[in-house]
Model the fold of this input.
Amino acid sequence: ETGVTQSPTHLIKTRGQQVTLRCSSQSGHNTVSWYQQALGQGPQFIFQYYREEENGRGNFPPRFSGLQFPNYSSELNVNALELDDSALYLCASRTGGQGGELFFGEGSRLTVL
Amino acid sequence: AQSVSQHNHHVILSEAASLELGCNYSYGGTVNLFWYVQYPGQHLQLLLKYFSGDPLVKGIKGFEAEFIKSKFSFNLRKPSVQWSDTAEYFCAVTRASGSARQLTFGSGTQLTVLP
Done:
């Protein structure tokens, strides 16, 4: 149990739709990051939020966007879904310090048909 | 940009066998290195990490890893595996400085331990 909870755990969408995934960080963690894990691959960094501002982004298009709220919970939004967006989306939180360990949630499995 | 290469996609061992999983990274600067494990149906969890100091680091569950800077490697080892070690293992790297500290993961190694 990492204290990081994600919802929903599974969902199915069709191409062109929009999706919102949610993450509740571990208490006291002010930094949250999102990763995409395609089948058979390692997680790929999407972006990171620190105190409600995006402070790092991976190689993902603008239709991937996010929010972090004052209570440090977070959302990942994906617009205009494509088939290749099918993946496990992982949320991870940590404290802002250099040695802060990342704690991962169990992920949201998105299937795009 | 940094990248991570894990050489073995699937490793099958018998219980009590020794384990070594390879990991090489590419990045010219100072890095922090990690090994994560993902048991079936569970979240990613940290096995061990290297930031600085002794290049031989010990983690949970009897795992250890050695950072060899000249080889850009961070191989994971365990002297004697158990059936419960069956899982997927990911090597990851991040730059040692900068605010984002994004993790770059390898593609993973699936370890199957036969009883």
Remarks:
- The two ends of chain B are 41 Å apart (CA to CA).
- Chain B has no helices and twelve strands.
- Chain B has a mean pLDDT of 92.
